[in-house]
UniProtKB/TrEMBL annotation:
Gene, per the UniProt record: Mo03005
Protein name (Swiss-Prot/TrEMBL): U three protein 23
Any one Gene Ontology BP term: rRNA processing
Predominant location: nucleus
Purpose: Involved in rRNA-processing and ribosome biogenesis.
């Protein structure tokens, strides 16, 4: 069951990476209620997030969410200690003490341009984040951390982006057509210089072609090589060979034959 869930999570994060540009380390925006639930389980929060998204993560909390944890008093001190280990995300409205849902909604915005993964147990916030394309959601089901499937808004935005990659926009096609027309008009107006430019281009091309051919001739493979000259015995001159032969024959004649004594 766990392997099947991990495979599904990898597939979901691959969709966000290919269509919306998500990259590791993933920025996980945690609200105060989710932080309390994590602190109650007394587990390694970073390891659990990484097991869900199948990659490196960077947990973050806003100033409003941290302030809410402080306001709860000493009973939720473990959640405060856990929140201190997360990176603090400036929201610039902590003095107003906005609700966690309002704070995170304001940071994510309408397009989630900073590519946050929102970790929350609030059904209201999750319903609101589903309307923002390209926003992964993590929630706690009892003691199991779950990565939610992409919403309908996310799938529609993904299909639209894939369609844009296949077909060029109509405005771009019109601009290309106008550029081609302007280019043709310019060539007709400067017709007197066109012939000279063509001749110069042809001569330059011929010079370049000759240079390339010369380089190709130099790079031609050589034929089979001869034997290593260091391993071949040197040939002796004919006169020296004849003199050595005569010398050896004279030495043989000068040496008397050794006769064996009769038994």
């Amino acid at each position: 069951m766990r392997q099947k869930r991990n495979k599904a999570n990898r597939k979901v994060m691959a969709l966000y990476a290919s269509s919306f540009g998500f990259r590791e380390p993933y920025q996980v925006l945690v609200d105060s209620d989710f932080c309390i639930a994590l602190a109650a389980q007394k587990d390694d929060a970073v390891a659990r997030f990484e097991a869900v998204v199948q990659g490196n993560v960077k947990p973050m909390m806003t100033q409003c969410c941290i302030q809410h944890l402080y306001d709860l008093g000493p009973k939720d001190q473990p959640a405060v200690e856990l929140a201190r280990t997360f990176e603090r995300r400036k929201c610039n409205h902590w003095e107003k003490k906005a609700k966690s849902t309002e704070c995170i909604s304001g940071i994510v915005g309408d397009d989630n341009r900073y590519r946050y993964i929102v970790a929350t147990n609030s059904a209201k916030l999750r319903a609101k984040m589903r309307l923002v394309p390209g926003t992964p959601l993590i929630f706690m089901n009892r003691s199991v951390m779950v990565l939610e499937s992409p919403s309908d808004q996310t799938m529609r935005a993904r299909a639209a982006r894939e369609q844009e990659k296949l077909y060029a926009p109509l405005a771009e096609l019109h601009s290309n057509a106008h550029e081609e027309e302007a280019k043709e008009v310019g060539e007709k107006e400067s017709g007197t210089n066109v012939d000279g430019q063509v001749k110069a281009t042809r001569s330059t091309a011929a010079i370049g072609r000759n240079t390339v051919e010369q380089k190709m001739e130099k790079r031609k493979k050589k034929g089979p090589k001869g034997p290593n000259p260091l391993s071949v015995k040197k040939k002796k001159p004919a006169a020296a060979a004849a003199a050595q032969k005569a010398r050896s024959s004279s030495q043989k004649r000068a040496t008397p034959a050794v006769r064996q004594a009769p038994a």
